[in-house]
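[step 3/7] inverse_fold.run input=structure_tokens len=138
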């Protein structure tokens, strides 16, 4: 999956939990209006629901519910980019210029993209992880 999609989905859900959630909603709806205008109204309604759900999840400390919302938006954004891959540049612009600036500073660090390139030759072996990794061998 393009790393842009999870970063954008996380930013959408995180921004919907801020006081600037309406600005975030407007930015995302504007993206849909340009790409799929027939879906813009439905996306607007879904963002309203996301706002209510993420606020409730944060109030109760329900990280699983919040992650579920991120997954929902990953699927929506992935379908949008699958239908028109050229929208990747516009989604990047919306993420960098409109969504990320709305996020509290402590929430911005989780949106980094990580690219790992590994080259192994001969009998070499590589173990790569973006986070914790546990390897046990007999």
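[step 3/7] decode complete -> sequence:
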């Amino acid at each position: 999956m393009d790393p842009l999609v999870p970063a954008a989905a996380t930013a959408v859900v995180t921004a919907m939990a801020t006081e600037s959630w309406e600005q975030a909603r407007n930015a995302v709806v504007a993206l849909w209006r340009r790409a799929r205008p027939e879906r813009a109204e439905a996306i607007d309604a879904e963002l309203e629901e996301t706002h209510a759900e993420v606020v409730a999840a944060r109030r109760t400390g329900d990280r699983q519910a919040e992650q579920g919302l991120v997954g929902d938006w990953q699927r929506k954004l992935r379908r949008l980019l699958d239908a028109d891959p050229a929208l990747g540049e516009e989604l990047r612009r919306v993420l960098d210029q409109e969504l990320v600036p709305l996020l509290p500073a402590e929430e911005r660090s989780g949106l980094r993209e990580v690219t790992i390139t590994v080259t192994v030759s001969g009998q070499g072996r590589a173990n790569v992880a973006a986070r914790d990794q546990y390897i046990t061998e007999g």
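[step 4/7] annotate
Residues 40-60 form the longest helix (21 residues).
The two ends are 33 Å apart (CA to CA).
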